[in-house]
Specification:
Layout lengths: L2 H4 L2 H12 L3 H11 L2 H18 L4 H8 L3 H13 L3 H10 L2
Helix pairs in contact: 4-6
């Protein structure tokens, strides 16, 4: 499983740091310090693409609204279909809020 390749002490520390954040403002502050604006925008774009794919949007509509490349949209689609289930977990929890 590909997820096992990710596991390690440094990544565990990163995830523990993220899980320690309590507010949206703390998230803004932490991600501003730890990532570039482009990295943060790429992550948020992928989540938006996943959300739109999950809602049944077409590639054209997604490309137009998010400015994501078709390669990015396809990659997110593969993750939704064959990935570890992370997008599904997050999208379901976001729906319930």
């Amino acid at each position: 499983m590909q997820i096992d390749k990710l596991r390690g002490e440094q990544l565990d520390q990163l995830f523990d740091a993220i899980l320690s954040l309590k507010t949206r403002e703390e998230c803004y502050q932490f991600f501003d310090d730890i990532a570039t604006m482009n990295e943060i925008q790429s992550l948020s774009q992928r989540l938006q693409v996943a959300k739109m794919l999950n809602e049944g949007s077409t590639y054209n509509a997604i490309e137009k609204q998010t400015k994501a490349s078709t390669a990015t949209i396809s990659r997110v689609r593969r993750c939704l279909d064959y990935g570890s289930g992370g997008y599904g977990t997050v999208l379901k929890r976001m729906e319930n809020k």
